[in-house]
Amino acid sequence: MSKKSGVFLNVLKHILDFVEQPLTLTALAILAALGLEHALALARRRAIFAAFASINLIAGIALVVALTTISNKLTGAVVRDGFILSVVLGVGALAIWLSLRNFNAPYLAPVIAFFALMLVVCLIPARADLTRNRSYRHLAKGIQPYLASGCSLISYHHFVQSLPFYTGHRELLVGYLGELAPFSGSSPDYAASYFPSDASLSEAWTSPRCIVLIANRKDLIHLEAILAPAPTIIAAEGKKLALAKPSLPAASAQLHATDQ
User: Is residue 151 located within the same domain as residue 114?
Assistant: First the structure.
């Protein structure tokens, strides 16, 4: 990477960090609207703002289509946030189009500023809900009593990095190493912490060993077919499920009931 490219990327990063602040975004929206309103010819301004409104309307429609398509893979809070955001995008586009009918009136800048503020109001809870959907803190809380009583934490085809942090327990892996692959050959306990196939997982599942298995929702039908006894869901968050055998150690059940 050249020195000029590095400087450009560094400046861009700081600009994005700056724009991320809600009040800054609103202020920039006002300045941009005022600047475009006074610096460009009337026809040019109309074309730019009409394109801006169209882009927001298309984004709102695309968001509705996307949410309708993958709503079963998202939490209810995220879907709700997404639909609210799509409504704001559509209403904002309509408001801008209406303001273009009388361009000389001094309300275009406030309309865009209010639109930006509403976007921020929608994005703040959406960001928090998305973070909860990916952090799996609540999932870790749900399985903590089982792990505390001696169950092993095993992840199926994924490495959920936050679980060892939140639970304080080591995460064993099934059929997936990911970023840990370069260290697998040199690790002395590699065989004890990695299940290379479904067969090796099934063998461990049928043993007396207590297991908490973390898997994606889409893998549940497959796991029910290969594991005996069939797993039951003991906790869930986002697209992740925590599975266990129907009969858990008494200590685990007691701790889980206390935690609730």
Answer: no
> What is the total residue count of the chain?
260
Of 134, 156, 191, the position where a domain reaches its end is 134
In a structure prediction context, what are the per-residue pLDDT tens digits for the chain, which is 260 residues long? 444 433 433 443 444 344 445 455 555 565 565 655 565 555 666 777 788 888 888 988 988 888 888 777 677 777 888 888 889 888 888 888 887 776 555 667 677 778 877 877 787 777 777 666 567 888 899 999 999 888 999 999 888 888 988 899 988 889 876 665 545 555 666 666 788 889 999 999 999 899 999 999 889 999 999 999 999 999 888 788 999 998 765 434 333 333 33
Structure tokens at 6: 């590095």
Total number of domains constituting the chain: 2
Residue 204's domain spans which residues?
Answer: 137-259
Domain end among 86, 109, 134: 134
Question: Which tokens belong to 10?
Answer: 């560094």
Same domain, 106 and 9: yes
Token pair belonging to 4: 């000029």
Does an H or E element contain 216, and which?
A: strand 211-216
| 126 and 141 both lie in a single domain | no
How crowded is the C-beta side of 93, counted as CA atoms within 13 Å? 17
- How many C-beta atoms lie closer than 10 Å to residue 75's C-beta? 16
Q: Is 195 exposed, middle or buried (0-12, 13-18, 19+ CB in 10 A)?
A: buried
Structure tokens at 29: 């929206």
